[in-house]
Amino acid sequence: MTEMTEERRLFAEFLRRRGLKTTRERTALFDEIFSTHRHFDADDLVARMRERDRKVSRATVYRTLELLHACGLVNRVRLSDEKYRYERMRVGEHHDHLICTGCHRVFEFVEPRIEELQEAVCTRYRFRPSSHSHQIWGLCEGCAAEKEKAAG
Ligand SMILES: [Zn+2]
Ligand SMILES: [Zn+2]
Known about the structure:
The chain is of the alpha+beta class. It folds into 2 domains: 93 residues, Arc Repressor Mutant, subunit A; 59 residues, 2-Layer Sandwich (Dna Ligase, domain 1), CATH 3.30.1490. Helices cover 47% and strands 15% of the residues. The protein is built from 6 helices and 5 strands; from the N terminus they run ααααββββαβα. β1 and β2 form a beta hairpin. The site of one zinc ion has 8 residues, from α6.
C-alpha cells in the first residue's frame, strides 16, 4: 500500500472537484510517476507501465498527465513543437531547466538570484504569482563540442 502523501491527497481532491473518479489506472500512473524523480515522455511512461504488467492505454496516459499537469503535480518541459518531457512535482519543490535541443537532455538548476528577481518583477507589477517555469533552450557542452567538430 502506498501512503497517503500530500500529493496523493491533492490529486484525489482535484479529481473529486472535477467530478472524476480515482480509478485504478490513474492511481497506478500516479504511483509510477511519483516513484522516482526523472524527466520522462509519455512513451517512457507507457513502457514503464508495461514492464510492471499494468495495462494502461496511451490515451489514459496522456489524459492523466494532462490532469496531473492541470493540478500542478506534474511539470511539463517543451523539447520541441510537439515533444514534451514531464516530471513529478512535490509540494514545495521547485527548480528550473536547461534544455538541450541536440540530445534532448534536461538539466535542472536552482538559482536564488533568479527567483528573487522574479519576485521583484511581480511586486513591481503588483502581480500575484501562482507559479512560474523558467526554461533555457540551447546546446549542452557535449552537443556544442560535436557541432564545432562537425563545422571543422
Ligand atoms: Zn546535448
Ligand atoms: Zn526538472
